[in-house]
Specification:
Blueprint: H1 2-12, H2 15-20, E1 54-58, E2 62-69, H3 82-89, E3 93-96, H4 102-105, H5 108-115, H6 130-142, H7 155-169, H8 178-185, E4 191-194, H9 198-206, H10 210-222, H11 227-239, H12 243-254, H13 258-279, E5 284-291, H14 301-307, E6 313-314
Helix pairs in contact: 1-10, 1-12, 5-9, 6-10, 7-10, 13-14
Length: 316
Amino acid sequence: MTKIRRTLTLTLTSAAIALSLSACSSTQTLPSPVAEQKVAASEVELPETKAPAMWKVADEDTTIYMFGTVHALPDDVDWYSGGIKTALDSSDVLVTEIDMTPEAMGKIQQVVADVAIFKDGSTVRSVMNDEQRATYEAAMAKLSLPPHAFDQFEPWFAALSLSQIALAQAGFNPASGSEMVLERTIGDHVEREALETVEFQFGIFDTLPPESQLEFLLEGASEVDNLASFLGQVVDKWAVGDVEGVAKFMNEAFESDPEMTEALLHARNRTWAEWIDTRLDEPGTIFMAVGAGHLAGENSVQDYLAERGITTARVQ
């Protein structure tokens, strides 16, 4: 169970990972772009309902909504409505983890080529022993993938690719993920900002020791049959705003790996809290969409904002 949690958490904490495999996805049926008429943030009334969680940080002239996302979702999950839509309608800027515009998505494949491919002639299977290779190839067969499909990739990217494909085959579509829906829903009048780059997010995984990368890959391979059903449970908690349930999932996933927890969650949460603190000095209304795990549990973005004396209010 812990292996499944860690594999899914590592996969879902990076928007770049999900989107690297969906840059060429077909367009889904999505809500129409919002109208250009803005609703003043002070006039927004958000309903109390069971829906994905959202928070608000505000001062006299700035409002920042913080919405917890899932980067890949089934097409039939109905989450873009009610308070989320109302908050986005009132916003001047959409802030996501990475640049979500079509132009940026078109560059991801080149980043993959630059950082995720072996440069020394090795293959992902050549760095495994016989037992490890058998586990890996069995997982590839279950996904109807040829055993050599990811040979060019370093173990970290092979691991994330394997997990994403397993989830995609089970109906978890990055093109239906929260950020992609938001990006394709808002109009051109809404500005875009990004907290990180694809290169930064990939770099977190790329700098892992080779043995840790391989361990991550083999964990995913050994649990490939169970990834989708377990993620479904997480999405069920997310969809009704069960922040404690999401937090429990994240905490248990990383309880044995404090260094990874620091790199993937806590350090980034501190940086984003600093960004929010600075952004409050500029007037406007911002809709900030980041992975739900960053807004749940101990050392969340909200916790680091509290250390700065900034209060967050849950509004959905």
